[in-house]
Automatic annotation (TrEMBL):
<dbReference type="InterPro" id="IPR013830">
    <property type="entry name" value="SGNH_hydro"/>
</dbReference>
<protein>
    <submittedName>
        <fullName>SGNH/GDSL hydrolase family protein</fullName>
    </submittedName>
</protein>
<keyword id="KW-0732">Signal</keyword>
<keyword id="KW-0378">Hydrolase</keyword>
<dbReference type="InterPro" id="IPR036514">
    <property type="entry name" value="SGNH_hydro_sf"/>
</dbReference>
<feature type="signal peptide">
    <location>
        <begin position="1"/>
        <end position="44"/>
    </location>
</feature>
<dbReference type="InterPro" id="IPR037460">
    <property type="entry name" value="SEST-like"/>
</dbReference>
<dbReference type="Pfam" id="PF13472">
    <property type="entry name" value="Lipase_GDSL_2"/>
</dbReference>
<feature type="domain" description="SGNH hydrolase-type esterase">
    <location>
        <begin position="65"/>
        <end position="298"/>
    </location>
</feature>
<dbReference type="GO" id="GO:0016787">
    <property type="term" value="F:hydrolase activity"/>
</dbReference>
Length: 312
């Protein structure tokens, strides 16, 4: 989400690419009827035993994960080798989700520091534009982008610096005023364009836009552990709520599902064994002000629940 380096649930509609798999499953009742006609015979027993051994097919076959560091998971356990520049973790939610759903073909191109432009242009020499990973056969796409375009990293640094002069005041809100609202609206068109381009490249895909986990509490804060003035905590918390709300609105407008992961009680001011997002000084394996492993596990559960598909 940071360059320094919420919820209408859309039930996925079976697409042409997935109808073949549905047809295969639909054939099972016929097999069951045949088994009834052979009831009591050795063949029936052997057929039933063999059927029990056939694993359930995954609901999706080709999954592409697009996003920034809140998707990539910098410093969450080991980093994925060949995307070391992107600081992509082997324990981020796309990999957890693929494993949970039995998806064998995952293309995770999420990259720390990514902005919308990096979906269209190479962020690093060895990292093609993220949207290039999409194909006509892609049937599941998760997207998590926009935080760096909004500039949350710079905002947090600015607010932290100003908090020193007034820990109990609101120097950050006084400095930015309505500017953060304006940034969110300016970003809306870019987010809409991402949805349109994903639909063009992967027309049969189920598209999920994953929001941002709660970073700050609703009020008060925990200065100086997270150096944001107490009066600025609700201001920045509201800015994140507004950003997620815009992302949700654009998701609905483009027929995608917005996955609301903003749940109170797991912010960076919580104890280390509770929080989903680390503070300025991480106590769990994660980059500062980024999701830890518990946050990635929670996000996986939110996405899986929104998809509403059985786990093989």
């Amino acid at each position: 989400m940071f360059r320094t380096d919420d919820t209408p649930v859309h039930t996925p509609v079976p697409t042409p690419g997935r109808l073949r798999r549905w047809a295969a499953r639909a054939a099972l009742p016929a097999v069951a009827l045949l088994g009834l006609s052979l009831a009591g015979s050795p063949v029936a027993a052997e057929t039933a035993e063999a059927a029990e051994e056939i694993p359930e097919a995954a609901a999706f076959e080709e999954y592409v994960a697009i996003g920034d560091s809140f998707t990539a998971g910098p410093l969450v356990v080991q980093q994925k080798a060949p995307l070391l520049g992107c600081m992509q973790s082997d324990a981020n939610y796309p990999k957890m989700l693929a494993e949970q759903l039995g998806i064998t073909e995952l293309v995770d191109v999420s990259c720390s520091g990514a902005v919308v432009e990096d979906l269209y242009e190479a962020q690093f020499d060895d990292q093609p534009p993220q949207l290039d990973a999409l194909t006509a056969d892609t049937d599941l796409v998760t997207i998590g982008i926009g935080g760096n375009d909004f500039g949350f990293a710079d905002v947090m640094i600015e607010c932290a610096t100003r908090s020193i002069t007034s820990p109990n005041g609101s120097p950050c809100a006084d400095h930015y005023g309505d500017e953060l609202d304006e940034r969110i609206e300016e970003l809306r068109g870019d987010i809409a364009g991402v949805f349109e381009d994903v639909a063009e490249r992967s027309p049969d895909a189920t598209v999920m836009f994953v929001g941002y986990l709660q970073i700050l509490p609703e009020s008060d804060g925990c200065w100086p552990t997270v150096p944001i003035s107490s009066g600025d905590v609700p201001y920045l918390d509201q800015a994140q709520i507004d950003l997620n709300a815009m992302l949700e609105e654009e998701s609905a407008a483009h027929g995608a599902t917005f996955v609301d992961v903003f749940e109170r009680g797991y912010d960076s001011c919580q104890p280390s064994d509770v929080r989903w997002v680390e503070g300025v000084i991480p106590e769990n394996a994660a980059a500062p002000v980024h999701p830890n492993r518990a946050g990635m596990e929670a996000t996986t559960a939110f996405v899986s629940d929104a998809l509403g598909v059985p786990v093989p």
